[in-house]
Amino acid sequence: MKQKRSEFATKLGVIATTVGSAVGLGNIWRFPYEAGEGGGGAFLVIYLLVITLIGVPVICAEFVLGRSSRRNIFGAFRHFSPNGKWHYVGYVGILASIMILSFYSVVAGWTMEYIYQSVTGGLDFNSADGFHSQFGDFCGSNWRPVLWTVLFLLCNLLILRRGVQKGVEKMSNIMMPILFVLLIVFCVNSLTMDRASEGLSFLFNPDFSKVTPGVVIGAMGQAFFSLSIGLGTMMTYASYFSRKTDLRRSASVTAILDTLVAILAAVIIFPAVFSFGQSPAQGPALVFEILPAIFSQLPGAAIWSTLFFILLFLASLTSTISMSEVSIAFLTDEKKMSREKATWLNTMIAMFFGVFCALSFGCLSDYTIFGMTIFDIFDYVTSNILLPFGGLLISIYVGWFLDKRIFRHELANGNSSLFTSLMRFSLRYIAPTAIFVIFLSQIGVL
Ligand code: PHE
């Protein structure tokens, strides 16, 4: 018996859930730290180029495959190419989704610790420079980060068990606008800081002499990570879209809002980094040390801090829900597993790896391969390798193998719009070549 696939209820629901997937720790935690390590302005320019030339076309490709097949990443490829090997792309996506969930939950767990500390007065907002040691002590305790990682994954599980529509849609609708307003308030505050101009010039004055292949691949990885593309998240979500949804509009709005939030976060962080005399290249701890210091300068610091970390926690949840949906849709559609079982399986695997990722900042910090901790490896391999690789295959498939009419029909209801032609052009030529060249330059071939 064929079951009707659940659909998102409203137009706002579609935008809110795709934006909810895209906007998360990737924008507020990862973007500032990657941009900080990548030299600021030049990183931003490359990032914007990747978003426009590769990111938006790949979102469109995922939307088209997902909505027209109404299947998960694995099933979508098998639907269009039943005899080919294309559905193996699905395994890349599923592997990436579980690896991301594992390390993402650690950072989402940090937001829970910071909510807890803000509420109970554990964050000392009177000593503006104690936040570095506070973060270190927290990670060094080992059990606390592990506990929060597990708790976060349980929250994720609770929402996933309720199904797609109710849980995600309602929460995103309320939360995203509040987060946005709060970011603007903090932005205005940061712009009034003593050395704000240094922070802005770091972010907006590109110094291309600092660009290395590592910076370019970092910017590309960040773009894929932030847009939730290359692993079938957008594809799976699109399989729940109604036929009436305008995919062009959804893709553009998602990319624009996602980029805006990342830039807002950077405009909050960098003026503060320079005003507090800190280094922008501190890595994953950056935002968790700088934000409390920013809040400590505001009246009612604990309230701002609580509110902000709650929103960041919720933004993380809407993202983890979307990435979990990749493997859950695969297990329920293809392996005929019950949703309950699939959700638990996904959670248990992520918990297992999540513990190692959480301990990478504590007792496992000396366990490194190529100078990277377990956490760093999960982060690096997914963003910089698996997602762009998935994106490469998706763009080649949609650009070269998928019937042009299907692409046109889904994306623009059969009209031959300029947008559709541009997207197809990029999927055929620009996106695959660019990703390939960036890969080659990273491994030193170019
Ligand atoms: N885009 C999300 C963020 O920026 C992370 C994410 C990656 C979500 C991959 C789903 C899939 O936080």
How does this model look, in words?
The protein has helices at 11-22, 25-37, 41-69, 73-80, 88-120, 131-140, 143-161, 164-191, 196-204, 213-227, 233-238, 247-275, 286-296, 301-333, 339-359, 374-401, 404-412, 418-442. It is mainly α and 446 residues long. The chain has a single domain (11-442), classed as Amino acid/polyamine transporter I. The longest helix is centred in the N-terminal third of the chain and has 33 residues, at 88-120. It is globular. The mean pLDDT is 92.
CATH fold-level label: Amino acid/polyamine transporter I
Count the strands?
Answer: 0
Q: Could you list the spans in which at least 5 consecutive residues all have pLDDT below 50?
A: none
CATH architecture: Up-down Bundle
Could you give a short account of the major beta sheet? Answer: none
Bound molecules: phenylalanine
* Percent strand: under 5%
Tally of helical segments: 18
